[in-house]
Amino acid sequence: MKKGETAIGVIGETSFPDRGYIDREDGKVLIKHALPGRKVEYRITKCRNGSAEGMVLRTVAPSPAETAADPCPQSGTCGGCLYQTIPYETQLKIKEKQLKTLLTEACGDSFVWEGLIPSPLSEHYRVKMEYSFGDSFRDGPLALGMHRRGSHYDIVTADGCRLVHEDFSRILKATLDFYTEQSVPYYHKTRHDGYLRHLVIRRGTKSGEILVVLVTASGEWDRLLPAWKERILSLETEGTIAGILHTRNDSLADAVIDQGTTLLYGRDYFEEILSGLRFRISPYSFFQNNSGGAELLYGKVGEYAGETEGRTVFDLYSGTGTIAQLVARTARCAVGVEIVPEAVDAAWENAARNGITNCRFIAGDVLKVLDSLTETPDVIILDPPREGVHPKALPKLLEYGVPRIVYVSCKPTSLAREIRTMEAGGYFLKRACGVDMFPSTPNVECCALFEKRDNPGQAG
């Protein structure tokens, strides 16, 4: 095998989340964004000691599993939905096998595997999208959507995306048409000039409320914001526009960064209903992206947490306090810790509006806050960001010695990596399941119950 070599092969075994392997006589080639059974032309990008990594150049023949009809118009170009050509039941089988294998390789097969719970909606389930402005090819017309698969620069206009409600596409198209008509340039992240950066849309699946945020660099084109707002308000949407906002971002990073947000219309939050509770969600605070799936996930969290009556529960990385409020309905008290101040403000407000008085929310880094907490937990629930718990925070929270720790992971590879630290701290994986929060993509949420070895108890 040589770097730069091109070849054709069939992807055989796959591993979580989207890694596949092509077996050759001279070794294995790791392929990213891989579907099992798909025949591809690939280029070797890295090569060492009889193994290599490759990049797909084109699909030569589909996988036998790819039998779903009528895929999205952007199928194969947008970087979002690798599995959309596979029927949903088959997607679930692939994900479950990969997730169970990942956990088994991390800690053996002594835990109880409880399967993969399907999403209530396999399409139109997302409540948030962050679209990027750019062009689909160099010096091409303005585009608004997702990055082209394998590219850091090209943008595919995501009009008609199947993951979101049609209201998303209506707002996206209206915004793209408006700024195309006005010949407004997008922000070039290599030249650091231009104006348009991102369009953030959040929509409650159950409430139907919509929040629209335009993210731009500073510039003379701010004068067009009132007209853009009126264009959005003139749309016929199934949901209700709750708020329209403008966020300024002059940072060099290619990310949505809030350096000042102005309310153009309505209010700066939308509401969503989850498990009978109502939540206010601000533009950039964390909230699960699949409301129906979140209800199933949090049901598992409650089951794994076990009896909480009269007990203190720590909800670490608590976002807008969703889990804390749900467990507080039976617990003595719940303490939420979250690093995003606006999410903590929303958590306090949500708890008050839901009539929940036995919650306390703290703004700060979990690593630092643990040193100042006066309460002693009986149960700990973790729902960290994708990269997992801070490596210094995990041993610290294990020192509490609680009988149970419930770990919710949106990136199960991070969870699998941290199992070794959990074991070193005296905990073992008792039960685990997946919840498919991300249909048509390789991603899946994992919920795991860890119990202390000297107090195993009975799960659930």
**Rough outline:** globular
Radius of gyration: 23 Å
What is the count of distinct domains? 3
Spatial order of the strands forming the largest sheet: 7-22-23-21-20-17-18-19
Q: Please work out how many helical segments DSSP would assign.
A: 9
pLDDT average, as an integer? 92
Helix amount: 10-25%
Describe the sheet with the most strands.
8 strands, mixed
Beta-strand share of residues: 25-35%
* CATH overall fold name of the largest domain: Rossmann fold
* CATH fourth-tier homologous superfamily of the largest domain: Vaccinia Virus protein VP39
**Which residues form runs of ≥5 with pLDDT under 50?**
456-460
CATH class of the largest domain: Alpha Beta
Structural class: alpha/beta
- The N- and C-terminal alpha carbons lie at a distance of 51 Å
What structural keywords apply?
460 residues; alpha/beta; OB fold (Dihydrolipoamide Acetyltransferase, E2P); Rossmann fold; 3 domains; seven-stranded mixed beta sheet; 9 helices; disordered C terminus
Question: Can you walk through the features of this model?
Answer:
Helix 1 (88-107) packs parallel to helix 9 (412-424). This protein is 22% helix and 32% strand. It is α/β, with parallel strands linked by helices and 460 residues long. Mean pLDDT is 92; it is low at 456-460. The termini are far apart. The chain is globular and about 60 Å long. Strands 7-22-23-21-20-17-18-19 form an 8-stranded mixed β-sheet, with helices on both faces. The chain contains 9 helices and 23 strands. The protein folds into 3 domains: 6-61, Beta Barrel (OB fold (Dihydrolipoamide Acetyltransferase, E2P)); 91-121 and 290-452, 3-Layer(aba) Sandwich (Rossmann fold); 128-274, OB fold (Dihydrolipoamide Acetyltransferase, E2P) (Beta Barrel), CATH 2.40.50.1070.
